[in-house]
Design a protein that fits this description.
- By secondary structure, the chain is of the alpha/beta class.
- It has 2 domains: about 270 residues, Aminopeptidase (3-Layer(aba) Sandwich), CATH 3.40.630; about 110 residues, Alpha-Beta Plaits.
- The protein has an 8-stranded mixed beta sheet, with helices on both faces.
- Helix 1 crosses helix 9, helix 5 runs antiparallel to helix 6 and helix 7 packs across helix 9.
- It binds nickel (II) ion.
- The site of nickel (II) ion has 4 residues, from loops.
Length: about 400
């Protein structure tokens, strides 16, 4: 079966690249993936796979094998980022307001290739494969949650997904048992002081000074409130205030992110951030408006599904492709699927020769990873169904 698959994958490779480049040229951001969705839909319907729309621009396609057996879902995210592409690749984005700078164009091509390979083998397995093409992974609250609320996981026994991963060499696989990706929360603060002339600071309440103390004071959360063996991040992303060098502004606004794996640490950090913000402002006679928004839950892989995935990597790509990796502080809404059904999420290396990280405007991926990833995804579905006949 594997040798047979490898031969078909070879023939599929030019198509995988063509599909990926077509998506790359036509990127669409969260819930605007209309063209993207219709291209995928037509492709699946041509394979005689029935497709239904979920979460506005998402798709759920059901491939039926022989009667009986289990049901396994495979997921790809389909949205691009609101970013102008840089660089001069021949398949550069034709949309000046968006680019596939995270690799989701590759995810779609991989899952389409997987659908084709599995549809050619539907007489050879028992059960069903459900392909989930999920919109809006990049924008909280994310498309996964909405798809689940609309019922995409009904009847699903297990789910697998992957992310093409620039930090790993092409064709290698990184996976973590248990928590692999963090909960990415967002917060914003408006420090309200009293504006005045830069030459008369004593008549003002200077929000720039207060905001500076606030940024410094919150650094003690990770260093003094959190167990040093537990990973937590508190980072500020924007500080905005003022118009000209000689005016003390009336207010300064800041935004930032908190990353955690442990729900009890998440609530501790949220509470300390609020306290330090309010008390720092109070100490200087300013007031604070504090807002906190929880992101996706931490992504937690199921142990038995990780073991299954590792077996499949060994069978399809070879044991030497497995990389021992640490969890990352990035977030991913695949986490919602894993809260509902057993499954695993993997990082698939595509970093050979790629110098720009995910979300960089000149991001690109080593397309040699595409056929290997499609082989792995196909293997995951077949292995799960074989074990659950
Ligand atoms: Ni991504």
């Amino acid at each position: 079966m594997i040798e047979d698959l490898k031969k078909d994958i070879k023939e599929l490779t030019p198509l995988l690249i063509e599909w990926r480049r077509d998506f790359h040229r036509h990127p669409e951001i969260g819930y605007e993936e209309h063209r993207t969705s219709s291209v995928i839909r037509k492709f699946l319907e041509d394979l005689d796979i029935s497709v239904k729309v979920y979460a506005k621009t998402g798709l759920r396609a059901v491939l039926k094998g022989k009667p009986g057996g289990g049901t396994v879902a495979l997921r790809a995210d389909i949205d691009a980022l609101p970013l102008k592409e840089e660089g001069d690749k021949e398949y550069k984005s034709e949309n000046p307001e968006a680019t596939h700078a995270c690799g989701h164009d590759g995810h779609m091509a991989i899952l389409m290739g997987t659908a084709r390979l599995l549809s050619q083998r539907k007489e050879q397995f028992k059960g069903k494969v459900i392909f989930l093409f999920q919109p809006s992974e990049e924008i909280i609250p994310g498309g996964a949650k909405k798809m689940i609320e609309e019922g995409v996981l009904e009847g699903v026994d297990a789910i697998f997904g992957l992310h093409l991963w620039q930090p790993l060499p092409t064709g290698t696989v990184g996976i973590v048992k248990g928590a692999m990706m963090a909960q990415p929360d967002a917060f914003s603060v408006t420090v309200k002081g009293k504006g005045g002339h830069g030459s008369m600071p004593h008549t003002a309440v200077d929000p720039i000074l207060v905001a500076s103390h606030l940024v410094v004071n919150t650094q003690s959360i990770v260093s003094r409130n959190v167990d040093p063996l537990k990973p937590v991040v508190v980072s500020f992303g924007t500080v905005k205030g003022g118009t000209i060098y000689n005016i003390i502004p009336g207010e300064v606004s800041l935004t930032g992110t908190v990353r955690t794996f442990d729900p009890s640490l998440q609530s501790l950090v949220e509470r300390r951030l609020k306290e330090i913000t309010e008390e720092t402002c109070k100490a200087f006679g300013a007031t604070a408006e504090f807002q906190y928004e929880k992101g996706y839950p931490p992504l937690v892989n199921h142990e038995a599904m990780v073991d299954l995935a590792l077996d499949v990597v060994k069978k399809t790509l070879g044991e030497e492709r497995i990389r021992d990796i640490d969890p990352v502080m990035g977030g991913e809404d695949f986490a919602y699927f894993l809260e509902k059904v057993p499954g695993a999420f993997l990082f698939f290396g595509m970093g050979d020769g790629m110098e720009f990280p995910h979300h960089h405007p000149a991001f690109d991926l080593d397309e040699k990873a595409l056929p290997q990833a499609a082989l792995l995804m196909t293997g995951l579905a077949l292995e799960f169904l074989q074990r659950n006949e």
